[in-house]
Amino acid sequence: GCLHAHETDSTFCLVLGVCGDEFSILRSPQSVVFRDGGWPIPGDRIPDVAALFMGFSIEEDLPWPGLAAGDLFHRPRAAVLVTVKGVDKLTLPAKGISYPIENAVPFSLDSVANTIHNLFSEETPVVLQLAPSEERVYMVGKANSVFEDLSVTLRQLRNRLFQDNSILSSLPLNSLSRNNEVDLLFLSELQVLRDIVTLLSRHKHLAKDHSPDLYSLELSGLEEIGKHYGEDSQQFKDASQILVDTLQKFADEMYNLYGGNAVVEMVAVKAFNSPLTRKTRSILQSSQSDTDNPYNLAYPYNYNYSVIFNIILWMMIGLALAVIVISYNLWNMDPGYDSIIYRMTNQKIRMD
Questions:
Q1: Do the Cβ atoms of 214 and 139 come closer than 8 Å?
Q2: In this protein, which residues make up the domain named Renin receptor-like C-terminal transmembrane spanning segment (predicted)?
């Protein structure tokens, strides 16, 4: 399978690659426009690029000229990000636009996943975030039913490899061994890629619905092979080639499942600059904030402020005017002429 995909009349595919300190656009649809200019992209803003081409807003503007304003009415139906650790470049045959990466810090697609969850909770989005070797898994929406049988623990991954229809029977292992734990971890991650395609193909209706889907996969098996055998070893070279072939096939199959309207991104990074830490509040934060903010300045301006201000302001003005008009009319009402109660009473008195 080749990583780049063929265009059809109405559907397109975007395949993105990030190789070491390079962010490469291998193919883009008409609805997503990337400019060729070699502008560096900060590593921590890669999720924002994904959010923008999916059609979502981001909290902080992205002053990066590489991504142009595309077609707002035709957005990709899926974004797939595969992060490969332990190698600074994967040799891919496809040529495309490339951008250098500034400061390759760890990133996650949590913000994009949360946006999809909040906006499409009533529909059928599929959100899957998975790091097999670290046993990290996060599923939202229909992912729980689609990927119910997916191997997510190390024991499940190992058992899956020794079943009849696993990749051990079809892949040329070359110098890799089926008796070595490091080799088996690497191969089990490739098995996960194949199983994702297999399980998703049984639920093709989810790939054709209107809610966007998100897949974020982190593979560190190649990094372990590099540490165990050395990066000049035949095993590392063979594993790299097997990984490239498998990723190309995976990208091609995901593209086809979504009718050509899918985005496949790939990040190959030798080593991240700093560990990924979740933002958490600490009980010591209040005491620290005094030193950070000695002048008691207000918090930074939020772009939602003007929207909320206008909603509240005009609602208050409208309610105040309504109260004044109603009060004035009630005060000046002629009971004999305006009120149906007095009118009915007068007629009854006359009849008696």
A1: no
A2: 278-352
Give the separation between CA 101 and CA 18, rounded to whole angstroms.
8
pLDDT in the model for residue 26: 62
Reply yes or no on whether the pLDDT at 340 is more than 60.
yes
Let me know if 260 is exposed, middle or buried by CB neighbors in 10 A (0-12, 13-18, 19+). Answer: buried
Between the alpha carbon of residue 44 and those of residues 78, 159, 185, 343, the distances in Å are 21, 36, 28, 75
Contact assessment for residue 1 and residue 252, using Cβ atoms and an 8 Å cutoff: yes
Assign 3-class secondary structure to the chain.
CCCCCCCCCCCCCEEEEEECCEEEEEECCCCCEECCCCCCEEHHHHHHHHHHHCCCCCCCCCCCCCEECCCCCCCCCEEEEEEEECCCCCCCCCCCEEEEEECCCCCCCHHHHHHHHHHCCCCCCEEEEEEHHHCEEEEEECHHHHCCCCCCCHHHHHHHHCCCCCHHHCCCCCCCCCCCHHHHHHHHHHHHHHHHHHHHHCCHHHHCCCCCEEEEEEECHHHHHHHHHCCCCHHHHHHHHHHHHHHHHHHHHHHHHCCCCEEEEEEEECCCCCCCCCCCCCCCHHHHHHHHCCCCCCCCCCCCHHHHHHHHHHHHHHHHHHHHHHHHHHHCCCHHHHCHHHHHHHHHHHHC
> Residues 226-242: pLDDT tens digits?
888 888 888 888 888 89
Higher pLDDT, 224 or 301: 224
Q: In this predicted model, what pLDDT tens digit does every residue of 44-57 receive, in sequence order? A: 888 998 898 888 88
